[in-house]
Structure formats: C-alpha cells, structure tokens
From TrEMBL:
<dbReference type="InterPro" id="IPR027417">
    <property type="entry name" value="P-loop_NTPase"/>
</dbReference>
<protein>
    <submittedName>
        <fullName>DUF853 domain-containing protein</fullName>
    </submittedName>
</protein>
<feature type="domain" description="Helicase HerA-like C-terminal">
    <location>
        <begin position="9"/>
        <end position="437"/>
    </location>
</feature>
<dbReference type="InterPro" id="IPR033186">
    <property type="entry name" value="HerA_C"/>
</dbReference>
<dbReference type="Pfam" id="PF05872">
    <property type="entry name" value="HerA_C"/>
</dbReference>
<feature type="compositionally biased region" description="Low complexity">
    <location>
        <begin position="452"/>
        <end position="472"/>
    </location>
</feature>
<feature type="domain" description="Helicase HerA-like C-terminal">
    <location>
        <begin position="482"/>
        <end position="550"/>
    </location>
</feature>
<dbReference type="InterPro" id="IPR051162">
    <property type="entry name" value="T4SS_component"/>
</dbReference>
<feature type="region of interest" description="Disordered">
    <location>
        <begin position="421"/>
        <end position="521"/>
    </location>
</feature>
<feature type="compositionally biased region" description="Pro residues">
    <location>
        <begin position="432"/>
        <end position="444"/>
    </location>
</feature>
C-alpha cells in the first residue's frame, strides 16, 4: 500500500489524497489569483513521485516550473515559518512539453477520421443539419476507402460529395450544398487557428503520455495552451479527444493501488460551454466509466457550478479556493459551492469560501471507504519545484532531452483522400470513349506494333514513352480482314484506336498495308505517338475533326 499524499495542512494535521482513490476524479476551483495553479502543481508532482504519469494544460505558462527544482525565498521561508513546516526537499519533476503549434514543445497531431464527426462538428460550431451532412461525408469516405487524415483531405472530400450530390442521393440521402459550404468555411477558420498543424500524421500515440523515467517517477506532460486558448473550441475539443483516446485504448483494471494516469483539465468551463446534448452525454459517459480504466480526471475552473451536475457528482476529491461574492448572483454561487461539500460542524463553509486567503483552501478528499471526508480549512503545501515559468533556454534543453525527442517533429503526408480524388480528376479525361467508329481487326500473332500493343489491336500510347516523329518503328504488314458490322466497330478504345483509324478514314479506306501510308498519314500517327499530355490529345482531336468536316 502506498502512503497517502500530503497536499495541505491544518491545525489537526495533514490533509492527504489516498493514491488508491485518486482515480475517483476531483476538482480544483477558485477565483483568479487564489492559488489554483500552485495547488495543481503540488498535486501533480505528488502523483508523479509515486510513478503516476500526468497530463495537464498550461494556460498561463506557469506550470513549466515543474521542470526545475525550487529554492528558498523570503516569501516561501516566511510561509513555512508561519505554518511551522520544514523546508521541502527541492526537486524538479520529469516533464515533457507539448504544443499543438510545435513551437513550445513536441508537436501534437490527430487525424480527422480519428477525431470523428461529432467532435469535429463541435469544433466547427455546426448546427444539426450541417452535422448530419458531415456524418454523411465520413460515411461516404469510409465506404469508398478514402482516408481522411488532414483538413485538405476533408475539404477535397466535401468538394467531391458536393459536386456528386445527385449520385449519392439515392444511397445516402439529400446533401445540402449550403451545408457543404458552411463546413468548408468552418474548416478555413479552423486552419487559421492552427488546425492545419493539428490535423495530420504522425498521430499522437497515447502510450507516449504514459511513461516513467529511470527513477520510476511518472512523466508530467505539459501542453502549452497559452496560444491555444485563443481558439477555445480547438482547445476543448482536443482535450476531449484525449479523454476519448484514453477511454478507448486502455483496458479495464478496476481499482489499483495508484492510478495509471492523472488528467488535469484547466479552464474546464470551456468544455461545457454551448456543448450540444450528445456531446455532454459523451463527456458524462467518459468520466463515469474511465475510472475503471485507472484514469483520474481533475477539472480546474473558477466555480464548481461551471461543471454540470451529472459530472460534478462524480468528483470525489475537491479543493476549493476563495470565491468573491460582490453581487447577489455571486452570493448564490458561493452558497451553491458550499453545498457541494460534506458539512463540518466546526466550519461555516459558505462564510469560509469568501474569507480564504491566497494559498488557503477548503479541502475534502475521499476516505478509505470511498466516502467524502468532512470539509476542512487548510493551507496548501509549498511545492518542491519552482513556482513560476522557466526560461526559454531551459525549456529547449528539456525538450531536446525528452524521451520522445525527434519522434513527432517531422510531419508525414501520405496518400489519402486528397491525393486520390485529385489524381482521379486528372486521369478522368484519359478514360473518355473514342467518339469515332473504328474497324476492329481479327487477332493476329503477338508482334508488337508501333503503339506498343500486339499487332492487329491498338492500345493507348503511354504518356511517358514518347518517340521522335522520325524514329517510329514500323511493323511488318499483316493481312487485314473485311470490316466488321457497325455494331462491332464501336468496341475500339483508347487514343491509339482513335488516331490510327481516324487517320485511315481520312486518307484511305482502310488499306492494311502500312507501308503505303501517305506522308500526311505518317505525320499524324507520329504526332499522336509523341503527344502524351491531355492538351496534346485535345489538339489532335481538334485537327482530325476539322479535316473530317472538310471532307
């Protein structure tokens, strides 16, 4: 059994989090400037020390101090003396820095298909109709084996579906062009906020966030979120995707001696603001069930009422910092926050919430039987790591020495929906049927002719093996059968059939002796062999069409 983790202290002793119950989730709440970040730092480092990997979002940049050992200062020394506590053993925690933009940490990426239409609709702020169209686009891509990896894949797929809406209508239903356009506009906005760097490969391997160092301490993964907070929907959707990844990939383990991972969700109100009902239900399901997979989720926000009741009721370990009650609405919020704690006859919870100082908090952790302890008023301990951010040079050094250094830095762009759809659009003109009727000779011995196919049947000229007009190899003449009926003549195909027989129709009546070709016939055939591009083929068709009209 692992010893309890001291988080705060009060007159009756230490207030400790039990490691075996740390997966029962929790919350850290309080107004700005009351000490939530330091509480988060103390709790994260305590979990790391017992081998629990941690993930947290660093909204202000202060949490980077976890990567550097703290030191005594006049302020900390005075606080320790006031509380009658010894100086902590100053030590840094093992950290790994991550950044969606790849600037302040290792890049973090996810694929569009892995994100899924529900979360993507939340990110794009789509209505129900637009979300339905987006789900159809994902379904069509799956049915046709088209990978959606990045935003350009999704844009290409939307364009393809919009242009072929009539074709998909029977099987998939109506596809509104207006909805397709709205989704396209939303993708442009997301790309401007950094979505073009977030969506792609290599996708994050969730196991890379669940590592320990050589001393057995859990790695604290810190996501640089100061810039990401400017795109709140991208931020909240990314963290929700992370929870879903943990939920889907981790096995059921029940209650362990310590969690397999702890997940701290700062600015948690962004997750629930304007969230549609299906998304709220998904969040509630993940929070309720992920406990049995050994993951503890801790929401960090200003007011516990920012969290829906269905989620708040599952958070057993709570730390409440001061709230300010300047208005009647604030006073109601304070009263509601006080009612979320188990009452203590020695503590007036509602009054204490407004009187707490910086670094002081109301604390209630679960006891050995999983019951909430009575609320206690205490002081959060001083962290062993540095309070405040580290320098840019120190951050770079920690990034370079990380266990995953060099794994995610280089983006990969493999063949996916964009490449396949664009390639199909380029190749489509080559597959057009020959408009002119051509005679189809009977099979002959397999002697290669000037078109690269067996003598007696034409084949398209390969675009990459053009020959000079004067150097074409002429085959030996072969006996030709009588022309077939009109119903069989239309079976010829390819550019070679078109040009060979069209030239024969213009300059002769189909003589089988190629040595008797006129100079003009030879010129046209040679030019057709040497032209492989789409523009060249259209030019030849135009020339032959003009000659045929003159006849």
């Amino acid at each position: 059994m692992i010893n309890p983790l001291p988080i705060a202290t009060h007159s009756g002793g230490q207030l400790c989090l039990l490691p075996q119950l740390a997966n029962r989730h929790g919350c850290i709440t309080g107004a700005t400037g009351t000490g939530k970040t330091v509480t988060l730092q103390v709790l994260a480092q305590a979990l790391s020390d017992i081998g629990v990997p941690v993930f947290m979002a660093d909204v202000k940049g202060d949490l980077s101090g976890l990567g550097k050992a703290g030191s005594a200062s006049p302020k900390t020394s005075a606080r320790l003396a006031q509380l009658g506590l010894p100086e902590p053993a100053w030590a840094a925690a093992p950290v790994a820095f991550w950044d969606v933009y790849g600037e302040l940490g290792h890049p973090v990426r996810a694929t569009v298909s892995d994100m899924g239409p529900l979360m993507l609709a939340r990110m794009l702020n789509l209505n129900d109709t637009q979300q339905g169209v987006l789900q159809l686009v994902f379904k069509i891509a799956d049915d046709h084996g088209l990978l959606l990896l990045d935003t350009k894949d999704l844009r290409a797929m939307l364009q393809h579906v919009g242009e072929n809406a009539a074709q998909f209508k029977t099987e998939y239903g109506n596809i509104s062009a207006a909805s397709v356009g709205a989704i396209q506009r939303g993708l442009i906005a997301i790309d401007e906020q950094g979505g073009d760097r977030f969506f792609g490969e290599p996708m994050l391997n969730i196991e890379d966030w669940m590592q320990t160092d050589a001393q057995g301490r859990g790695i604290i993964n810190i996501l640089a979120a100061d810039k990401l907070m400017n795109a709140p929907r991208l931020y909240s959707t990314f963290l929700l995707w992370m929870l879903s990844e943990l939920f889907e990939h981790l096995p059921e383990v029940g209650d362990l001696d310590k969690p397999k991972m702890a997940f701290f969700f700062d600015e948690a109100h962004l997750l629930f603001d304007e969230a549609p009902k299906p998304l709220l239900q998904k969040i509630e399901q993940v929070v309720r069930l992920i406990r049995s997979k050994g993951v503890g989720i801790y929401f960090v926000t200003q007011n516990p009422l920012d969290i829906p009741d269905t989620v708040l009721g599952q958070l057993g370990n709570r730390v409440q910092h001061a709230l300010r009650a300047y208005t009647p609405r604030d006073q109601k919020a304070v009263q509601a926050a006080a009612e979320t704690f188990r009452p203590n006859p020695l503590v007036n919870t509602a009054q204490a919430i407004t009187e707490l100082g910086v670094g002081e908090a109301l604390v209630s952790f679960l006891d050995e039987k999983g019951r909430p302890n009575m609320v206690e008023r205490g002081y959060v301990l001083t962290p062993a790591s540095q309070i405040g951010p580290i320098s840019v040079e120190e951050r770079r050094a920690l990034i370079a020495s990380s266990l995953v250094a060099g794994v995610y830095e280089q983006a990969i762009d493999r063949e996916s929906a964009y490449e396949r759809l664009k390639g199909r659009a380029v190749q489509q003109p080559q597959a057009a049927p020959a408009p002119a009727p051509v005679p189809q000779p009977a099979p002959a011995p397999a002697d290669d002719n000037a078109w690269g196919a067996s003598a007696g049947r034409s084949a398209p000229a390969p675009a990459s093996t053009s020959r000079p007009s004067g150097g074409a190899r002429m085959p030996q003449p072969q006996p030709q059968p009588a022309p077939q009926p009109q119903s069989q003549q239309d079976q010829g195909g390819g550019l070679g059939d078109l040009l060979k027989d069209a030239a024969g129709g213009i300059f002769g009546s189909g003589s089988g002796n190629r040595r008797s070709d006129s100079p003009l016939q030879a010129m046209v055939k040679s030019a057709a062999r040497s032209i492989g591009s789409q523009v060249g083929r259209e030019l030849i068709r135009g020339v032959l069409g003009s000659l045929m009209k003159k006849r």
